[in-house]
Amino acid sequence: MKHKQIRSEITTGSLGLLFSTLLLLSNGVLAQEEPVQYQAIALNDTLTMLIGRGGNVAISAGSDGVYVIDDQFPNIADQLLVQIRKISDQPIRYVINTHYHGDHTGGNEALGGSGAVIIAQDNVRQRMSAEQFNQFWNGSTPAATPASLPVITFGENVTLHLNGEAAIAYHV
Question: Which residues, 6 or more positions from 26, have their beta carbon under 8 angstroms from its beta carbon?
Fold first, then answer.
């Protein structure tokens, strides 16, 4: 069986943080003003990429169920769930967060509340659990709610074997 790899790159560099923060802020403002116009791109028989607001979302849906990689902003989680349901009406079993920014973890509470198990690298849970101060913006992001936190974490990597594929998240 051929395995496809989905890489999760967790970065903490200041330049990456700056660009991610700018994207988060610009998209966060827009997210409140109008509905998201998602574009679904089928990558193969089980894997779909959703282009929406903030980071892209990957959805694997097949005979073993559904898992999602990243889940956008909290205020558009309901719109994301509608899009996922267009791909599959099966329960969402897992959510993988690639990093702690709000456009990748914002839907955790909604998806976790619907029964999905949230998975992320150890540092993602650690950062989400505490207030984060950004020197560039001279401002803070509050700690995430307990319901938003990953419940399974990993150090170096984790692999999901679902829908005939292996999705491997790496800490780089």
Answer: none
Task: Show the DSSP H helices in 8-133 as ranges.
Answer: 14-31, 77-87, 102-105, 108-113, 122-128
**The whole model's pTM is what?**
0.79
**What are the tens digits of pLDDT across the range 112-125?**
999 999 999 999 99
Number of Cβ within a 10 Å radius of residue 132: 16
Q: How far is CA 31 from CA 20, 25, 77, in A?
A: 16, 10, 11
- Dihedral of the CA atoms 150, 40, 5, 90 (nearest 10)? 60
On whether the CB atoms of residues 87 and 64 are closer than 8 A, the answer is: no
Dist CA 139 CA 157 (whole Å): 32
